[in-house]
Request: fold
Amino acid sequence: MTPTLPFLVTFATTLVAMTLFSAVGRRQVRSAQDFSVAGRQAGRWSVAGAIMGTLVGGASTIGTVQLAFLYGLSAWWFTLGAGLACLFLGLFMAAPLRRGEVETIPQFISRFYGPRPRLAASLFSAAGMFVHIVAQLLACSAILTSLFGLSLFQGALLSAGLVAVLSLQQGMLGAGRSGLLKLLLLYITMVSAGLIAFTQSGGWQGLAGSFAPFPWFSLFGYGIGAGLNDLLSMLVGVVSTQTYLQAIFSARDAKAARQGALLSAVLIPPLGLFGIAVGLFMRQSQPGLDSALALPTFLFQQLPPLFAGIAFAALLIAALGTAAGLTLGVGTTLQVDVISRFAWTRKHELASLRLITLAALLLALLLVLVNLGSTIMAWSFLSMGLRGATLCLPLLAALFLREHLSPRGGALAIYLGPTVVLVAGFIQTNIPPLYLGLAAAFFALACGQRRPRGKSTP
Reply:
């Protein structure tokens, strides 16, 4: 795959235009709340853009096509699970979370479990998002090195610079607008690619003649357990990640928060189906191809160079947007729940928020540079375990079991869940660390309910 001049021109133009669109807005950031929650003035489309701008990344596109190449319809679990998670968020969680008038998840749950576990919840959840930044920088570096022959070191530096531009200037004010633009370009890319692939594969008859019903057209083609595991992971990930819920906190009211989440639930799953069509066509036509290259190869071979350049820029921005959203989530969590106790940061909230966000990005870049050979999925699994075990069950209990909560049990869950994840990761058990952490948190909450209930702040 050698980029042509028309490809390079449209790729560079699209990348620069989207970066500037995100970094420069009509409304300027004047306060820390403008930066972290868009001044709580985001409408439904801005909320949806902020959610999808982070949630829809390389896994929804390149990863889905790769899995479809290997397993068929089972590749839909990621985008389908993301849509179902947003549906749950919109129907049951968005309104009470927005009415909480908070900026972070630990800030919200501290009202029910007391202030002591808030620091631990903040540090563990920030650490979970932080290691996912590392995974996203590795993914962005891989895209740049495959396109332009850069070294991984050069790709990592360029990726971090672009993430800084996307995250440090406008914060959440720019996240909604850029997320919607990114989604529009991704939709144009994936719909076009999916329709071309479906047509060239011979339509449904051509695919049915080339692939057996099982495993290629079953959601459980690579196993029922594996499929349900992917679904649970998405539900836990969306519920327990500051970056996604920060979009809810930025809504102008509970109605906008709910509608933004529901829009995301409708728009995300179809992307996976178009990706599956591409993956099956590439398996049908080039079965010996490296599965990770299925989507890039298709775009190079089947799309005109001008359009292919725009498509690749959209894919890169998707991964960069995820990294930028996670970086903003880390900065907001540390600023609001940890750093704000110091006098200087209270006087200079916006400057402090930008500095801590930049520091998180630079530290993630440092880890990438010293671990260039590490795998993306290893970082992603650790990230999911830390975030999910720390916040998922305590947050759900605070929302739906308020009258039965024990502050002591909730605090114990926040301490115990991520600790079990770290221990399980260190000893390398056969059971996913996330499951062990969730089991430990559930046990702590259940034990807490048997004790006399203490007073909690409504």
